[in-house]
């Protein structure tokens, strides 16, 4: 384009209002610029949805209903779990749908609110609209129901229940319930091998075992508490456990009980001995008469002599040439070392069952902790019961004797409650009173009467005061002084009107060291009429 500078203007032929021209030889007019501006401005209007930008195949919105119908790509917020179906857990979550625009084979990811838990499922059939079960993706790699061992010091691993044969709530742990074949009973892996016996062909005993005959010197409640409980429960004390020594082991049956010992023995039987009378010269060549014992009371006929008077049984002595065998009765044998299991093979570990899975109540972790605490409490109670069972007979006998003595003493004390015994009667205002029975450790009760307007034989208007006489003052010189208060109502004239007031008067009682003599002082205006003890 040529510009005539001297004229300083653009020819109209070079101006264009077109907005779709590809020409490089013209310039845009104001109308073309406005058209472009308006178009650009319309594209900048703030849209609130993807649809506002023309995107209809991806959604970001809340959802209520059946998750099986969510097949459009997007992210959906489930804020009311109770109004939705087929959720992995009964709580709020985000559902991400991945379908790639094709709703015939879609996948869903569930992100649980306020948690790191993520679940996945997918369609397994388009025709029947079938879905796989939800599978948790962010697990620790241990499947629900797996048995895992932890060091015994670990007492409350999160997500596990102790494998001790107890039961659990199937509503609380639904995944575990299904994994165990619709059973709510945990396996019992607390079984111990302590107490079993075995023979070893080596001298060095494996760890956890001890020689059977070392039980009496080795097993204590501190060293091997479990074996100690078993043996004391059976034999009463460790010192009563029998020694195996060189005995053969027999099964407990046919009137043989566990722990019973037997000496060696040959089953009862008889032998026939044919011989002449040993004093005969023809028998000396066969028998040495110094090595036999003749029982002339047992006569028998021999094949060569029918004369009973010179026939009999012979009992060869053990050091005679006729004696055969060794120093003991035994079969063919091999010597091995008899040992007993003193420490459980898994004593340093405990077995637990993976319980989560899904927890279907609001207090998921609390429920798991509660179940574990209940297991621990149950085990503690069982251990205490087992320990109490191991009390020795002597301890039980002593305890019974103590209880019986305490009962008799309590019975005697109860029999004395409310029982009054009069130990003195008379009329004394002060001085010494001798009572008929010791009052140490008892209650001394004094019956008082005002001396004013009363005669000595008048027993009306009696006032009672009492105090305890300590048993600890028995035999001590001087006894103890007891200050007692007596209250009386007196009248006082005030302007012609009688005003009544209570006056407290005090006197003292001293109990002598013998417990049968008391001294009364400062009992002005009153008589002691009677003294009881209780």
From TrEMBL:
Biological source species: Haemophilus influenzae F3047
SUPFAM superfamilies given in the database record: Receptor-binding domain of short tail fibre protein gp12 (SSF88874)
Phylogenetic lineage: Bacteria, Pseudomonadati, Pseudomonadota, Gammaproteobacteria, Pasteurellales
Keywords: Coiled coil
Entry keyword annotation includes Coiled coil: yes
Listed CDD domains: pyocin_knob (cd19958)
Entry-linked InterPro entries: Phage_lambda_Stf-r2 (IPR005068), Phage_tail_collar_dom (IPR011083), Phage_tail_collar_dom_sf (IPR037053)
Coiled-coil residue spans: 371-413
UniProt xrefs under Gene3D superfamilies: Phage tail collar domain (3.90.1340.10)
Domain Phage tail collar, residue spans: 145-190
Protein name according to UniProt: Probable tail fiber protein
A GO biological process held by the record: symbiont entry into host cell
């Amino acid at each position: 384009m040529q510009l005539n500078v001297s004229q300083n203007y653009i020819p109209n032929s070079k101006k264009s209002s077109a907005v779709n021209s590809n020409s490089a030889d013209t310039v845009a007019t104001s109308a073309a610029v406005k058209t472009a501006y308006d178009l650009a401005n319309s594209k900048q209007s703030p849209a609130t949805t993807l649809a506002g930008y023309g995107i209809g195949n991806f959604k970001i919105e809340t959802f209520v209903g059946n998750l099986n119908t969510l097949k459009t790509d997007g992210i959906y917020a489930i804020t009311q779990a109770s109004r939705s179906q087929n959720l992995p857990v009964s709580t709020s979550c985000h559902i991400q749908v991945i379908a790639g625009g094709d709703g015939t084979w879609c996948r869903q990811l569930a992100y649980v609110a306020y948690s790191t838990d993520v679940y996945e499922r997918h369609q397994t059939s388009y025709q029947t609209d079938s879905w796989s079960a939800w599978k948790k993706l962010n697990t620790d790699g241990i499947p629900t129901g797996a048995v895992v061992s932890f060091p015994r010091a670990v007492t409350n691993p999160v997500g596990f229940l102790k494998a001790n044969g107890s039961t659990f709530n199937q509503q609380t742990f639904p995944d575990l319930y299904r994994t165990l074949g619709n059973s709510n009973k945990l396996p019992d892996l607390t079984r111990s091998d302590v107490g079993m016996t075995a023979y070893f062909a080596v001298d060095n005993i494996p760890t956890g075992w001890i020689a059977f005959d070392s039980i009496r010197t080795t097993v204590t409640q501190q060293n091997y508490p479990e074996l100690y409980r078993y043996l004391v429960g059976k034999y009463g004390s460790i010192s009563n456990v029998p020694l195996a020594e060189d005995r053969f082991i027999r099964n407990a049956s046919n009137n043989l009980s566990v722990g019973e010992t037997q000496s060696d023995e040959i089953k009862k039987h008889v032998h026939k001995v044919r011989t002449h009378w040993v004093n005969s010269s023809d028998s000396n060549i066969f028998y040495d008469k110094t090595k036999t014992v003749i029982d002339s009371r047992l006569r028998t006929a021999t094949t060569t002599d029918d004369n009973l008077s010179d026939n009999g049984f012979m009992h060869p002595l053990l050091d005679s040439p006729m004696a055969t065998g060794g120093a003991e009765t035994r079969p063919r044998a091999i010597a091995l070392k008899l040992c007993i299991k003193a420490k459980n093979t898994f004593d340093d570990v405990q077995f637990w069952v993976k319980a989560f899975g899904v927890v279907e109540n609001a207090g998921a972790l609390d429920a798991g902790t509660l179940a574990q605490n209940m297991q621990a409490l149950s085990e503690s109670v069982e251990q205490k019961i087992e320990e109490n069972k191991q009390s020795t007979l002597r301890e039980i006998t002593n305890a019974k004797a103590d209880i019986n003595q305490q009962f008799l003493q309590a019975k005697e004390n109860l029999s004395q409650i409310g029982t009054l015994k009069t130990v003195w009667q008379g009329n004394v205002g002060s001085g010494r009173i001798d009572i008929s029975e010791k009052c140490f450790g008892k209650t001394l009760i004094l019956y008082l009467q005002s001396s004013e307007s009363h005669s000595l034989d008048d027993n009306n208007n009696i006032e009672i005061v009492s105090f305890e006489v300590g048993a600890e003052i028995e035999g001590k010189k001087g006894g103890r002084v007891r200050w007692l208060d007596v209250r009386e109502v007196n009248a006082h004239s005030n302007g012609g009107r009688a005003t009544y007031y209570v006056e407290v008067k005090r006197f003292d009682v001293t109990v002598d060291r013998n417990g049968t003599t008391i001294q009364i002082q400062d009992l002005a205006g009153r008589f002691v009429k009677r003294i009881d003890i209780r």
